[in-house]
Each structure stands twice: as structure tokens, then as C-alpha cells.
Amino acid sequence: MAGPLVGTLGALVCYFLSRYYDSRLLLALSYAGFFINLFNLIPLAPFDGGRVTSILSPRIWLIGVPIRIGLFLWRPSPLLVVMALMAAPQVMRALRYDRNSPETAAYYSADAETKVTYAVLYLGLAAFLAVMSYDVKNMLGPS
């Protein structure tokens, strides 16, 4: 969570400075920061969202697959294809996930309080970034 949180703080600094100085450049930088951090929270490797959500369950990585497909259909990019290839091993592991295997139990062991804390932080940050990305994009006007 440290990377997305620090990135969000940087975007917030740009946002507040843009409002104080009435700077469209700083506003655009804040939008880029909010959007990149939101994109980084996609629950699939190699994004930070894949690492954060793995503490809850590796099966959450399967949610990232339709998100990535939707992004590709919306804005085709070779980078998304490369990321999909990098994520393929994790998706396969998520499909074969066995909660009772000794390796899985050792690797993904976390108490319920930790899981709830990470889930709340992850969802709260994703919601905040989505709202800020949308609002700042509207402030910038049509592109």
C-alpha cells in the first residue's frame, strides 16, 4: 500500500497547488497522478493492486482479468498485452488455488483483522482515486 499511498499524496500536493496558483499544468499533473495510481490498483500482477489483494485471496486476481480486457478494448495498447503475459502465471495459480495446501496456508496466512484492514484501505483508496480522477478530468474540460 505504500506506493499507491505516497503516489496519491504527491497527486494531492499537485492538486492543492493547482488550486492555490490556478495552474492548469499542476491540475493536469494531479490528474495524471490520480489516474496512474488508480490504474496501479488493478487487482492483478504486476500492479500494486495484485500484491495488496493477494493478502485477501489470490482468487481476487481473477477480477483483474476482465478489467484488463476492458481497458484493452477501450484503449488498445501493446503494453497491456505485455502486462497480460506477465500476469498469466498468477492467473493460472489463482485458477488452481487450493486454500488447504501447506504452501498456500503458509504464504497467505493473515489474521482476519489484517485482511479487513487491507480490504478497507484498498477499497477506500480506489474509491478516492476514482472520484478524484473523474472530478479533476471534468475540471480540465474536454480534451
Question: Can you offer a commentary on this structure?
Answer:
By secondary structure, this protein is an all-alpha fold. The protein has one domain. The chain has helices at 2-21, 24-40, 48-54, 64-74, 78-95, 102-107, 112-140. Helix 1 (2-21) runs antiparallel to helix 2 (24-40). The mean pLDDT is 81.
Content-based structural category: mainly alpha
End-to-end separation: 31 Å
Give me the strand/helix succession: HHHHHHH
Instruction: Please state roughly what percent of the residues sit in beta strands, choosing from under 5%, 5-15%, 15-25%, 25-35%, 35-45% or over 45%.
Output: under 5%
The tally of domains stands at: 1
Secondary structure tally: strands: 0
Mean pLDDT: 81
Rough shape?
Answer: globular
> What's the gyration radius in Å?
17 Å
Low-confidence stretches: none
In percent, how helical is the residue content? over 70%
Main sheet overview:
none
User: Number of DSSP helices?
Assistant: 7
